[in-house]
Structures are given as structure tokens and as C-alpha cells.
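Researcher: We plan to redesign the surface later, but first we want a full-length starting point. C-alpha cells attached.
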């Protein structure tokens, strides 16, 4: 997993649960203290162990913590990759183009980087289906990222999952529709 995710996870844990919690989470993961660097790649298992330890420490279900982290992470990723994002894009546009823009750059800049594969079908001006495929099976993180993108752009959305790798499906299928402001 890309080091930038670990760096953001450290920031999230500190911002959400308080100073010193990152070290406690690393301790609980069995990894011990480690300084993650944004442009490196680390074993997926370390991310899994850290997220599981954070969920244990906070008493939150793993899927809920991952989704909250994804929401938190979205703004940082948009800001980091701003040069790749068309200023005219909004939530659904970015989802439609993330694979060919951001993920392509990540893969070409580091051969060991392996972001999830996203296939996107634009159904209409207000609807998109995102197919998430990753051996990490962190679809909750993907859902959080989508919610965070929508929050960033000020787009109310409805997000439904019609297939899930955690339930035995080949990939997760996330239906995203622009919703009403309420």
C-alpha cells in the first residue's frame, strides 16, 4: 500500500482520537513504532493490522472506521492530485475519470504502487456505477472516499452497494446518484 495512505492514516488517528493515539495503535497492531514515508510502498498487511488495531482501540466496527477514514482522506487526495483534476469536474466526473488520471499516474510513478482498479459507468448526468476491485477488499474505504468527494464538492449523494467482495461477489458495485439537498 502506498505510504501516503499510512501518513494520512496517522493524521486521521491523531485528529480523530487525539495526540499519542497513533503510537498506541501501532503498538496494538504489533508493528511497534515505524515512521511511514509518503513516497514509499509498504506491505498491505501492515495497513490491515493498523486499521484493525485502530478499530479495536476505538471500539468502532472496522467497516465504520474505514469509511470514516475514507471520508477524511478524500480532501487530502484531491489537494494532492489537483493538477490532474479538471477544475470543471464535480463528484461524479472525478469518479468517472479517477482510474485513467490519478491511478495511472500513481502506477507509473512507482511500479510497486497498486491502487484499486476502478471501472466506472456513467448512467446519466446524475448517476454513476463504480466497480471497485482490489485484493485488499477495503470497499468501506472506497465508500468513505466517495462520500468525502461529495462533501468536498458540496454534492448531496445517494450511495448504494449492489455487490460486495466481502459477501463473495467478484467486485464491489457502488451506485452513486446525486441526491436532493435536504
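Model: Full-length starting sequence:
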Amino acid at each position: 500500500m502506498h505510504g501516503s495512505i499510512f501518513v494520512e492514516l496517522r493524521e486521521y488517528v491523531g485528529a480523530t482520537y487525539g495526540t499519542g493515539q497513533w503510537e498506541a495503535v501501532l503498538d496494538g497492531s504489533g508493528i511497534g513504532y515505524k515512521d511511514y514515508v509518503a513516497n514509499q510502498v509498504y506491505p498491505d498487511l501492515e495497513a490491515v493490522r493498523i486499521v484493525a488495531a485502530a478499530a479495536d482501540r476505538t471500539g468502532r466496527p472496522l467497516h465504520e472506521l474505514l469509511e470514516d477514514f475514507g471520508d477524511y482522506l478524500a480532501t487530502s487526495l484531491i489537494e494532492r492530485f489537483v493538477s490532474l483534476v479538471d477544475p470543471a469536474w464535480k463528484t461524479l466526473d472525478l469518479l468517472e475519470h479517477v482510474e485513467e488520471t490519478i491511478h495511472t499516474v500513481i502506477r507509473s510513478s512507482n511500479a510497486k504502487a497498486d491502487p484499486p482498479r476502478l471501472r466506472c459507468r456513467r448512467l446519466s448526468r446524475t448517476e454513476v456505477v463504480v466497480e471497485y476491485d482490489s485484493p485488499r477488499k477495503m470497499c468501506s474505504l472506497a465508500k468513505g472516499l466517495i462520500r468525502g468527494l461529495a462533501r468536498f464538492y458540496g454534492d448531496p449523494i445517494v450511495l448504494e452497494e449492489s455487490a460486495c467482495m466481502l459477501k463473495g461477489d467478484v467486485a464491489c458495485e457502488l451506485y452513486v446518484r446525486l441526491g436532493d439537498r435536504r
